[in-house]
Fold:
Amino acid sequence: MEVVSGALERIHRADPVLCAFLEVWAGEALRRAAEVDARVAAGERLPLAGVPIAVKGRHGLRTAGPLLTAGCVAVGATSVPGPGTPWQTWGLGAHGRTVNPWRSDRTPGGSCAGAAVAVAAGLVPLATGGDGAGSVRIPAAWCGVVGLKITGGLLPSPDRTGLAAPGVLTRTAADATAWWRAVRPPSGVDEAPVRRPLSAVWSPGLGFARPDPEPVASARSAAGRLVDAGIVRLVRPPERLSLLDPAPAWTALRTPGADRTGAHRVRAGNNRRLDALFAGTDLLLTPATPTAPHGHQGPGDVYSTALTWAFNVSGHPALSLPAGFGADGCPAGLQLVAPRGREDLLLAVAREAERRGALA
Structure:
């Protein structure tokens, strides 16, 4: 009860400025917390008993069942882009435009805008998300938290295109692992400690994107820290990774009635290249975003999804790790991509990076 009460108090104080929440369910959350306390006192084992969480959007409770079963207490629905918002990198909460907690004149990213802000600001330790083009990983990078998108099709998703997959935003890798333990299907691979350096390929632009120098430098430095800590070793693939730009394919797959012949060709071509890559290495490392967080007036000419949506089209799991800060004082992210179904590798690297002090 005290933990949930503390979360509600923090939200009450901070949300008029941050605008991270669409709705706050204070009364219901306190009732739920009391119920969880009573069940634990009666001897019931609830692995996440009393953990306050936020869910993405007003319909987020629909996918939070496993977390509630584990004892979590949902305290509110986080902000998402408002009607007609372009680029899906804004949030609109009950009190107004969602702001980046590091700089209020910058966007937190989206569409999990409020989720990232609520976690980064310490309002809740965990917020659920959904990632159809980078909606978890982009705000995680720009707000300096951990953001995991799982393998496409592994868990149910309301997105009929198959591009969106559930995900989570947390302050720590341990919390992301706890989420995965609660929601993963019975066939999911158990997480394991990293007992050897995992092989990893570094790619600044995946062969088609042209990211800005600063987020590339931040992500490359973060990759170097993983190497220095003995968590990964960088290797050169037999052939340089060069994916096809997924933008036209993603758009066609999302557009009703569109000719998807080209989209299927791009997906098949990239799948072959990624399958060949992962046949010889454990991980792919890239910047999480091609730019620093943009202002509220708009993003300019570069899609913030440039480095993330390829893995929505391919279905690979991917995670954004905090990678330090740019000259503007805003965070950057390092994206880790693993073979399909290997969320355990991503979480193991994230846990080891925290344990060994390899994060910025």
